[in-house]
Design brief:
The structure is a homodimer of 213-residue chains.
Chain A (H helix, E strand, L loop, with lengths): L2 H11 L5 H10 L1 E5 L4 E3 L7 E7 L2 E6 L5 E7 L6 H9 L6 E4 L3 E7 L3 H7 L1 H27 L2 H15 L4 E2 L3 H8 L3 H13 L3 E4 L2 E4 L2
Antiparallel strand pairs in A: 1-7, 2-6, 3-7, 4-5, 4-6, 8-10, 9-10
Helix pairs in contact in A: 1-2, 4-5, 6-8, 7-8
Chain B binds a DNA duplex (30 and 30 nucleotides) through helix 8.
DNA sequence: TCTGCAGTGTGACTAAAATCACCAACATTG
DNA sequence: CAATGTTGGTGATTTTAGTCACACTGCAGA
């Protein structure tokens, strides 16, 4: 019974859901595996399911003209992709990219269920609203940083967020990746990182940054 | 009967709503007036109602440290404030500012109604979802511009959007206002506008820009 | 082991934007 | 109409970030 696996994820991550809601989800969700680098969503793609991450980490980003991956936020176990809910409901196409940066498992919930779930289950409705709210806030944060902060502050904030989101101070990042995430150039990042190392905020090695604060 | 006024607005702007939904809204919404410059929402404020604009225009912006009003988008008749829905539902505080830039009237819908409306009325539910979707997209657009575009492109886009949103090519803006909206300095805007005038995209007068394309 | 490439360091230069300084035009108000 | 404040124009300068060029260093694969 492969749905035992689904049921277990739902039980663990959504303790607040009513038993009958859990049952509906279990019976209708399919579990999908994504390897590192796999895309869950791409610009222009039409969504047919709402996506809920149950394992791993997914990076949401806006793609630049030269392939930059302007970082917005991560989705983690228990998070749903707000855009997959929105686009799914109205059959709209997505405006962003979502890529697995770890081995990831996600529940795919057919969009046809959305109306019924929203109507019948207050806990689901709250979950959806909360998803919108947190993602909206993340976007506002992104706007704040990019609109009002200089590069050094943005970098410091970026590293802090990485450490927090990935729950580790051992960051496996190249200067190039960071530059792409912040939409700047590698040299700028190298220089700023050096300053941060000199002031004791980080330690650097090849492909690796240790966040010390 | 002051609710006749409310009923009329709802009838005109929300033809898709079921009669009983319209009735509930009519009986529970209060109409509020805002003069130019009045705030509908402020950072840190706790929302107690969902706000639907029925007349006028409201500017949503992020406030900078020195009082800049970093422009995000306008709300117009028929639009609801996505944040007032989100914050209202969870009693969260708002992260942005909303200011009337025209004489504005708005329906205030008590948050206690939200759960019931979402559950009982599919048209309401769709309206809410659509509100989230369009505002989310607006934010993505803002991020796109600020992350990837240079000042001249941002300015051109800004003027275009003003003309489109306010349905007029006669823009009553000072260089200072524009600079504040784009979080740059007045001199930069003056110079770029001059270039745009020279290339025939706009015509300038004091406190006034005519968008020619 | 050697080779090549991805990752990093750094100086020099360029470009974009912010800041400073100051002036002129216009509007409002007493 | 004089005084004052707001708006806009413009040159000079500074700051920040982006670009170019090139060197160095590990690591992985032939």
């Amino acid at each position: 019974m492969k749905n035992m696996v689904v049921a277990e994820y739902i039980d663990r991550l959504f303790t607040q859901f009513e038993p009958s809601l859990k049952e509906i989800l279990t019976n209708n969700a399919t579990l999908r595996d994504f390897k590192i680098g796999d895309m869950l969503m791409q610009t222009g793609q039409n969504m047919r399911s709402t996506v809920i991450i149950v394992e791993g980490t997914v990076k949401l980003y806006r793609e630049g003209e030269d392939g930059q991956e302007f970082f917005m936020y991560y989705l983690q176990p228990g998070n749903a992709c707000a855009l997959s809910m929105i686009c799914a409901t109205k059959q709209q196409t997505s405006q962003v990219m979502a890529k697995a940066i770890q081995q990831t498992k996600a529940l795919m919930i057919p969009i046809v269920l959305m109306d019924q779930l929203m109507r019948d289950y207050k806990t689901w409705y709250y979950f959806v609203i909360e998803t919108y709210r947190t993602r909206f806030e993340e976007l506002l944060f992104v706007i704040d940083n990019i609109a009002f902060k200089a590069m050094d502050e943005r970098l410091a904030f970026y590293l802090k967020k990485q450490a927090a989101d990935l729950s580790t101070k051992q960051l496996h990042l190249t200067h190039n990746q960071i530059a792409s995430d912040l939409n700047t150039s590698r040299e700028v990042i190298s220089r700023l990182l050096k300053k941060m190392e000199q002031s004791g905020q980080i330690k650097m090695q090849r492909n690796y940054i240790e966040y010390l604060i």
